[in-house]
Design a protein that fits this description.
By secondary structure, this protein is of the alpha+beta class. The protein contains 17 helices and 20 strands. The radius of gyration is 47 Å and the shape is rod-shaped.
């Protein structure tokens, strides 16, 4: 390849200086914009296109037949910092080449410097648009910085045209020269040494030039000044008498990287949440106990809302009872206080909507009701120290848990139909004793009292013998209806024999049971006559006995209620001896 030609009117010194520039460069005539001189680096970069006769810069770089409207060569202000522009040319192998070029007036011509950014462009297209685009830009800027530093080393007269802050320092770190961009730094005023620019009173602890710049090849450091992030590149001065420093404002890039990372973290977190929901949905479909489902949920859910402490309480089909509970990070004493408060009559009858604060295990507790698909409360979720920013995730997970619990409770209610008395529709003996065992466990673990009332219909045998079994059945059905309407929500009424009933009163003792019997007797006194066939009026009379765990042990309350009931029945027949004669056996 022939060396570039030199017009006779260009001084040889200018040509030599142009050839010594390590970057691709050319000179353009101010009169007609013709490219009059270029160096070997420019030819290696752009190719034979530079050899075309009367080639202009706007034809080469912009494919225009006339000069650009914003041509830098026409600028009158020689002190202004020229901007970098982009262009596409073809190299010597006819490959498309992406370049950045910069124009500046120089010795009666326009000096054009070319920077090959083809590699950066290819990297930009190959990287991920969401994350790697920023990395490619940083590579491009670092490459441009290195090219500019090389140019500055050979052409110190161009220092003020560099867009980044550039300054030269001596071996004692005193600032010798700085460009306009360096003057624009917020700490530039009054700065005498380089470390003054970064707000220090002495050289940085890890400064590579502490022992002199002679051994420094190129070193990069980072600084923060008043919220501005600066990347400092330290290199040896081309004159070997100090150092050359370049400060680049990377605030925007760092913030953009932080935003990308935050978005990536958010995407990762959302994926974890969706994966957790999918795993929970899969687990629900398995044939597992509800307590296992709740435990699986809590272990999965707590890390997502960034806490390690929580309690889930699931209601039973019978109000005032707990089907299961799972907890993490709570003591047995705290759990007992919490459970007693949740099982209180006010809480179970919805007279209060939330557990009182003095019963909660932590001062920063959050209460989230678990709602079934019908909107009814099926349990409660109590969490500790959870930010409000997690509210969406809490609702996202609590909804399927509530639906799962609701479906399981519906299944249990269907199963309970097998535990009802076919004549009256109330519970049978088997269900009563299972419910009693649950109340006994609450008494042992939480100290919550319960009571048992035993009821027996008087003269049932006489009614059967005298008026038929339909009359006796009517007595039993009527008694069942009155007893069922007299109890509270959560209490259990069961038929345990032909004319015998047991009533389980929850969350109360003997005093409450006595008050219940008193109210029941008033009801019977007001509506105790039953019409049999042929307009026969027959009184519904019931003997009652009670006992509570505040008087007797849980194992003895049925026995003592039975004794009191038979004592009342004996008193009844002593008061009505004629009716005893009618009732040969009871």
């Amino acid at each position: 390849m022939q060396p570039p030609q030199t017009p006779h009117d260009i001084p040889a010194a200018t040509e030599q200086l142009l050839q010594s520039i390590p970057a691709a460069a050319c000179l353009v005539s101010l009169d007609d914009h013709r490219i009059v001189l270029y160096n070997q680096a420019a030819r290696d970069l752009i190719g034979n296109a530079l050899s075309a006769p009367h080639l202009t810069c706007h034809a080469l770089l912009c494919q225009n037949d006339s000069p650009c409207d914003n041509c830098q060569a026409r600028q009158d202000d020689a002190d202004s910092i020229p901007e970098l522009r982009s262009a596409t040319v073809h190299d010597s192998n006819h490959n498309t080449c992406f370049i950045k070029y910069q124009c500046a007036p120089w010795q009666g011509y326009t000096l054009v410097l070319f920077f090959n950014i083809s590699r950066e462009i290819k990297l930009l297209h190959a990287t991920d648009l969401a994350r790697k685009e920023q990395q490619a830009k940083l590579v491009m800027q670092d490459h441009r910085q290195q090219e500019v530093l090389a140019t500055i080393s050979h052409l110190e007269l161009m220092i003020d045209h560099i867009p980044e802050a550039v300054l030269s320092v001596d071996e004692s770190f005193f600032i010798i020269k700085k460009n306009k961009a360096a003057d624009a730094l917020p700490t530039s005023t009054g700065a005498q040494r380089c470390f003054d620019l970064v707000g220090r009173s002495a050289p940085c602890e890890n400064c590579p030039a502490r022992d002199g710049f002679h051994s420094v090849t190129e070193h990069v450091k980072s600084h923060t000044i008043d919220g501005i992030f600066l990347t400092e590149t330290i290199s040896k001065s081309p004159k070997n008498d100090g150092g050359l420093l370049l400060f680049r404002d990377t605030t925007r890039q760092i913030k953009l990287v932080a935003q990308i990372k935050e978005q990536q973290d958010s995407i990762t977190r959302q994926n974890e949440i969706l994966s957790g929901l999918a795993n929970f949905g899969t687990y629900i479909q398995q044939e597992t106990k509800l307590s296992d489902v709740v435990e699986f949920f809590l272990n999965l859910f707590l890390p997502i809302i960034e806490t390690d402490t929580g309690v889930i309480i699931v209601n039973d089909t019978r109000p005032g009872n707990i089907l299961c509970h799972v907890e993490q990070g709570i003591s047995e004493e705290e759990l007992a206080i919490l459970m007693r408060a949740y099982l209180s009559r006010d809480m179970q009858t919805n007279r209060i909507e939330s557990i009182p604060e003095d019963a909660l295990p932590w001062p920063d507790s959050r209460q989230i009701p678990l709602l079934g698909t019908d909107g009814g409360k099926v349990g409660i979720l109590i969490l500790r120290n959870v930010d409000r920013e997690h509210d969406d995730n809490i609702n996202l997970f609590a909804e399927p848990l509530g639906a799962c619990v609701h479906n399981r409770l519906l299944t249990l209610k269907l199963e309970e139909k097998a535990n009802t008395d076919p004549l009256t529709g109330i519970y049978n003996r088997g269900y009563f004793h299972r419910a009693l065992e649950m109340e006994q466990e609450k008494f042992k673990t939480l100290g919550i009292n319960h009571a048992v009332v035993e009821a027996d219909i008087n003269r049932l045998k006489f009614a059967n013998d005298q008026y038929g079994h339909d009359a006796g059945d009517l007595l039993i059905i009527t008694a069942s209806k009155i007893l069922g309407q007299s109890v509270r929500m959560g209490d259990v009424v069961a038929r345990t024999g032909g004319d015998e009933f047991l009533i389980l009163l929850t969350n109360t003792g003997s005093e409450g049971a006595a008050a219940f019997i008193q109210r029941l007797r008033k009801t019977l006194a007001q509506d105790s006559m039953i019409s049999f066939a042929n307009d026969v009026q027959f009184p519904l009379e019931i003997s009652l006995g009670y006992a509570g765990t505040d008087e007797f042990s849980p194992e003895e309350i049925i026995k003592n209620a039975d004794n009191r009931m038979y004592a009342e029945k004996e008193a009844y027949y002593q008061q009505h001896p004629d009716r005893r004669r009618q009732q040969t056996t009871e």
